[in-house]
Design brief:
Strand order of the largest sheet: 3-4-5-6-7
Strand content: 15-25%
CATH topology: Rossmann fold
CATH class: Alpha Beta
Radius of gyration: 16 Å
Shape: globular
Order of helices and strands: HEHEHEHEHEEHE
Oligomer: single chain
Number of domains: 1
Amino acid sequence: MVALAQSMTGDHPARPCLVLSNDPAAKGLERAAALGIPTAAIDHRPFGKDRAAFEAAVLPALEAARPDIVALAGFMRVLTEGFVNRFAGRMLNIHPSLLPKYPGLHTHARALEAGDTEAGCTVHEVTPVLDDGPILGKARVPVLPGDTPDTLAARVLVQEHRLYPAVLRRFAAGDRRVILI
């Protein structure tokens, strides 16, 4: 989120209008406020497994900000089809694997267990199917001997901070060509 916000300056075609978190204690809220970005937090825990009720609580804050693009970053909630469709073609996410490999959680451990020689991250449009929307960018990193999920995740994160801002810039300008790093 910070990498995205910091990239949206100068001739960038987008500006951050809200950082919204499902965790009121998220450090990103403090970082966003320090950057002068409005923030909101809707704690998902009181809603239990009722995703639609949580989303209904999120929508007023999101709609008040009137975003042209919703860029998910560290928002670890599965969204309902109705919510996703409301922002169809305008919602992006980054995933720490080379999709379509390893949708969902524990991507680095899964790549290591499979004996993959490379890993990476993917920016994609969000659709109702988890981690399955049109791919807008990928960045690859080698899997090194002795890698652990944590060491691999750290190298992938460096590429996430390069890839996602580059994809967002192009996407905001109407360019959906795939970026490969």
